[in-house]
Amino acid sequence: MKKFSNKIAIMMLATVMGTASLPYAALNVQAASTPLNAQEIQQAVTELSKLKVMQGSNIHNQVTRAELAKMVAHTFGLQGGKTDKSVTFTDVKANDWFYKYAVDLVSLDIMQAKDGHFDPRGTVTDAEFVQIVAKALKRDVKSVNYWAERFFSADSNVTRGEAAYLLNVARQAIPSDKATITSVHALNEITLIVTFDAPLTAENEAFAKAKEDFVFSDGLTLTNMPRLKTGSTNTYIVPTSVQKPGITYSLTYKGKKAGTFAGNATKINMTEVRQVTNDTFEVESLQANGVIDYGYVISAYSGGRGANALVLDQNNNANGKTYQIISSMQARQVTITPEGGQPIVAKYVPFTQSTDGKQEIKFRLPEGQVLTPGVTFTITSDWANIANPTFVAKEIAPLEISEAKAVSETSITVSLTEDPGDELFSGRSVELTSADGEKLLATYKYSSRKGTTGVFDIQQDGKLKAGTTYTVTPVGDWAGKSSAEFALKTTS
User: Fold this and answer.
1) How confident is the model at residue 16 (pLDDT cuts 50, 70, 90)?
2) Is 353 helix (H, G, I), strand (E, B) or coil?
3) CA 353 to CA 318: how far, in whole Å?
4) What is the Cα–Cα distance from 221 to 215, expressed in whole angstroms?
5) pTM for the full predicted model
6) CA dist., res. 84 & res. 215, Å (int)
């Protein structure tokens, strides 16, 4: 059954109401447990009718694939979509009213026509509809599924009214290069929640551009790109340098005043610290304690997080729990102090804050420094409270390189004898030495590790020579004295 009760009665009520206009606020996506009501459906129909996305009021009827093709094409401006893919149909004629819409959507791989069979009079399940909208909007499926949850049942066929509701929500998630900020507030010492009147384009989300556009007072800076929250149409998690409590910061966006917010004194609650290599340690947080890494709650990463991805509501609640959000660790650092010694600044190791299902942020000592076995070290931070901030260092055997292979003339794979179970390649480099003494430097390609093996890209425009044998050795002590040899095969 559908999630809202007495579905047919509600739809008929909406039909009786005709095209009466309702407050725009009725479009707001409510909690997934709130039943979808007739007024919301009718408001969506009214809005889409104004835009000529749909006509007619028989919203309780199941939508056909032909009708949906037109609705989707008009909602997202996909008419005449540019693609090199040619489309032919066995059951659609060029003079059919929906022909151009079917061509557009199939050529863009938004709708399917297996063996040329489009099935224009066929119905569409809720699950299929979610996939279609996600592809058309170029948005993660989890977000679109969340917007549809109030009527969603995987095997049920979507009605015209339900289609109108979801398309009208999704329409609000179309990126705009003219987006402006409508609200901003600090979530914790290093994180802002910023809402726009429309989502940003990919170009405006890029860090270099965003850093130009987001300008703060009192020395506060953007530390990484803004990330759209899963399930939201236009709300972003925005990482900043550490805020000062008691300071009222002002924000301008693209040169225009965008609001003010009070510096937040809330630190992230971390659990404990532990050594992972002779120069690297990690600071752990636990979702069970109500702390979640932003990688699990942003649209950009939801596809790769599978069932671990979450949708947090506007109060950052999910499944009855309120979460603290750890935003990007880019440019973060902590202080590590040996007992009886001087403090040392350790910097974040990129792409290690949430990997292999664990929230264990890695930090590394300055080049050439190592943790002294038997010494107690204490970690302190201006952005985190750490419940158990000390560990006693020990001698840890380095990783061991077992094999290297050429992927192309500009990259290689490096394999270890054992799976490290985490991103311990991150920030590491290897040296490639040819038989005639020529040396090349290759650095790890972040997040490329699969089990024991990671990809390393050759730097400074260097290239491997066909038929040449290279010896691969670690730069520094991260893999001890281990090495491997490979030869780039001569192309025929």
Assistant:
1) very low
2) coil
3) 21
4) 7
5) 0.89
6) 41
